[in-house]
Design brief:
Largest sheet of chain A: none
Strand content of chain A: under 5%
Largest interface: A-B, 48 and 48 residues
Structural class of chain A: mainly alpha
Number of helices of chain A: 9
Number of strands of chain A: 0
Oligomer: homodimer
Distance between the termini of chain A: 67 Å
Radius of gyration of chain A: 18 Å
Chain lengths: 181, 181
Amino acid sequence: MPPATDPKPALLAALADYVLKNGLNSASLRPMAKAAGTSDRMLIYHFGSKDELITEVTWRLAADLADKLDDALPPTRAETEAACVRDIVRLLRTPTFQPYMMVWLDIVSAAIQGNANHSAAGAAMIDGYLDWLEQRLPETTKNKPVRAKALMTLIEGVVVMDAVGRSAVADAAIDEWFASG
Amino acid sequence: MPPATDPKPALLAALADYVLKNGLNSASLRPMAKAAGTSDRMLIYHFGSKDELITEVTWRLAADLADKLDDALPPTRAETEAACVRDIVRLLRTPTFQPYMMVWLDIVSAAIQGNANHSAAGAAMIDGYLDWLEQRLPETTKNKPVRAKALMTLIEGVVVMDAVGRSAVADAAIDEWFASG
DNA sequence: AAGGAATTGTAGCAGTCGCTACATACTAGT
DNA sequence: ACTAGTATGTAGCGACTGCTACAATTCCTT
């Protein structure tokens, strides 16, 4: 057989879907293969190794998340920074984005354990979100790059609080940071 | 044999040490047993199941971290909130505390995946750190409980940024949040 | 000394892991 | 028709997983 139409895009879509539902770190070849309608044998054949597969899925999910964020929050500038952050946090708590947050924390956790692939992906994702956020800051915001870093770091803290069931702490934090002035 | 002196404390110490070095989610019985100078057989015997063992180790590590934080930053009030946060962040980046941050992110990651034990532990740890932080806020800080939540959420964001190698973003965020007024 | 409970080693089970050897297709180019 | 290269199923390897059955050892109590 000559190279048929590359089956990897379809596989990646199914694999990404599986990872979104089941997490990244605990994903293993046979269940993934089943979910993608193929065999572990073929996954290794197409991706070379589980490591490369996971790396590709990770980047694919990062791209998907970026797309979904763009769709949900088009690049129009918010009225205030508080509204901007609150909109984003509300979005991230949505059933659509919650799985991505799960995978995101998988990546963060793997990164701090020294996984180079996940560390690189995590850093790239942060860089991307910083740009993304910058474009949505209010017109009036001065020094947007720095403000984006400040707000993004706060939002990451909110994600952690949400993860351990302390959304109330996160909400209080947001209220407090945007109180008075 | 009648009940000898309870061997669990010594075991827990060795197990906690192992987890600090190797992470929580990837810990398995046989390597742990070897590190503790015993067998997987005995670990199950003493702890009932791996799940209960991991739960005990988690709480033990949480207590250890609390102790170490107390030692490193005695309950004296800081001059300013900025100094307080900066001291804490500097501390958490220390080789002493980095392993605890690794385990912490393991817990957060497991919590968002629905692990009830880790979710409970994570929530309890947050509650504990909030009290701890509150006692270290400057005398002049009004509404300390709310300020503690605001600062703690920011610090958690810093931990995430550090994990993926974006400490620079975290530093810029801290500078920005404590700039001007 | 005998009995009973606590403790521990040995060995193994049934399952999963990533990955691979082997054989078999299948199809396009010659 | 033949060949070369691509694609795929079957079966299994060796390592690891949490856990357990069984038997032995140890020590206190009676």
